[in-house]
Each structure stands twice: as C-alpha cells, then as structure tokens.
Design brief:
This protein has 171 residues and is mostly helical. Helix content is 58%, strand content 8%.
Length: 171
C-alpha cells in the first residue's frame, strides 16, 4: 500500500484545517498516512522563522485571518483568536501521537481530536489532565504517557530523532 508521510505539529492550525482533506486524498489514492509529528518551533528556529518585512503584530493579524478563512472554507469550527495556551510547550502532545502510532492506535482520529480541542476549544496541550480528557476512550493515555517517558526530558533515542535538528535537516 502506498504511504503518505504526514509531517505536522500537534498545535498547528493549518494541520488541523487540512487534516480531514488529507485523509480524503489518502482514501481516494488507496494510501495509508504515516504520522510524523515534529517540533515545528524547532524547525522555525533552525530556519530563521518567518522571513518577511512585516512586524510580528501584522504577521499575526494576517496569519489569523488566513486561519479563519481556511477554517470557514473547510467547514471547521475554530475559536476566535489564538488559543491562550498556544505559546506553551506542545512536545507532550506530539509524543503521545508518536507513542500511539507505535502502539498501533487510531492516530488519524487521535491527531484530529487533539488539534480540534486546541483550535476549537483552547485545550492546553502540555497539560496531561487536559490531554486525558481529549484522548479518553478508546486510547489508554496512561499507557501512551508511559511510552513517552512521561516527563518532557525522557525519551528513547528513536523518539528523540523525531525532534532532532538532524532529522529536520534531513528532510
């Protein structure tokens, strides 16, 4: 079966907006989606971030307008403004998705649920209790948290590769 590698971050508005359409495309093509959550902020930092002459305020305004327009086009509910917790560390959510994929869980729907909770409801992704409410059944968050090492700084070398600069540069 053909595969589509899906590189995204659990906090990305555009991943949330495009997620269902990507799955339609995969179904139409008879392809399986391979989830590759990664540290988008690390990539932005490594590449110099958004390079244009706009002030951060103007860039945020236009980015927000694009998010609103694309969400409306895709028929998705989205909160007004940026989630208050958006600047927080989202590594735990990415790691839960990686662990879920390794455990053979339905990551397609789990990823969408996490992104939807963040962008529609303002969920705080590094909050384990909040993630537990998002994940709920049929996922076993305790098992997934155990697989992620639980703490933000403990990870197997294989999982760390998803977040390493070398992995970003490789792609």
């Amino acid at each position: 079966m053909a595969e589509i590698e899906y590189f995204y971050s659990a906090h990305s508005a555009f991943a949330y907006i495009g997620d269902r359409r990507l799955h339609e495309i995969a179904r139409e093509a008879g392809a399986r989606i391979v989830h590759r959550p990664f540290d988008l902020r690390g990539l932005m930092s490594a590449t110099g971030g958004a390079a244009n002459s706009m002030t951060p305020e103007r860039r945020a305004y236009f980015s927000r307008r694009e998010i609103e327009r694309w969400a409306a086009f895709r028929g998705l509910e989205i909160m007004r403004g940026i989630p208050e917790s958006h600047p927080n560390d989202f590594t735990l959510a990415n790691r839960v998705l990686i662990a879920a994929a390794e455990a053979g869980a339905d990551v397609d729907n789990l990823a969408f649920a996490i992104m939807q909770a963040h962008w529609r409801d303002g969920a705080d992704l590094p909050d384990a209790a909040g993630l537990a409410r998002i994940v709920h059944r049929p996922f076993d968050l305790r098992r997934l948290m155990s697989a992620t090492g639980g703490a933000a700084n403990s990870m197997t070398p294989e999982r760390r590769a998803y977040f390493s600069r070398r992995e970003i540069e490789r792609w």
